[in-house]
Specification:
Helix 1 runs antiparallel to helix 2. The longest helix is centred in the middle third of the chain and has 101 residues. The protein has two helices and no strands.
């Protein structure tokens, strides 16, 4: 998953940085042991130029490694930031979904209460109409009985 991949990338970047730091420290110690540039009996033989060219090549390689490590670090940080943004977005979606479900439940409850109230009103009205009809029928019967 994305979190495990991001964690793996961060570990790899950290290990590369440590390796580059160790290589830089070793290069510094080797250069400091040489005691700087002094006139050598090898001057003019081409060996000094070859060594200087080799040192320049090593420095270019070290610079490329540093740039690559910086790019890996930036990529890992970008992955981490993306993972955080995704997690926040997911949390927001979940909260919104929860709110929407609660609103739908409340609307449904209100609708059911309104239907129940309407049913109760209709039942009360039917009962009242039945009583009125019964009273009218009773009054009609009593008036017929009274006429005879």
């Amino acid at each position: 998953d994305a979190k495990a991949e991001a964690h793996h990338e961060l570990e790899r970047s950290h290990n590369r940085r440590k390796s580059l730091q160790a290589q830089d420290a070793e290069l510094e110690s080797r250069l400091s042991e040489g005691g700087g540039l002094t006139k050598s009996p090898l001057a003019g033989t081409g060996i000094v130029e070859t060594i200087a060219d080799g040192a320049a090549l090593l420095e270019r390689k070290a610079n490329r490694r540093r740039a690559s490590s910086a790019a890996e670090t930036a990529r890992a940080e970008k992955l981490d930031a993306t993972a955080k943004i995704d997690a926040a977005a997911e949390a927001e979606r979940a909260a919104n979904q929860k709110k929407a479900l609660a609103a739908m439940d409340a609307a449904r409850d209100e609708k059911l209460a309104a239907l129940e109230a309407a049913d109760n009103e209709a039942a009360r009205e039917r009962t009242m109409n039945a009583r009125r009809a019964k009273k009218a029928a009773d009054a009609e019967r009593e008036s017929r009985v009274a006429e005879h």
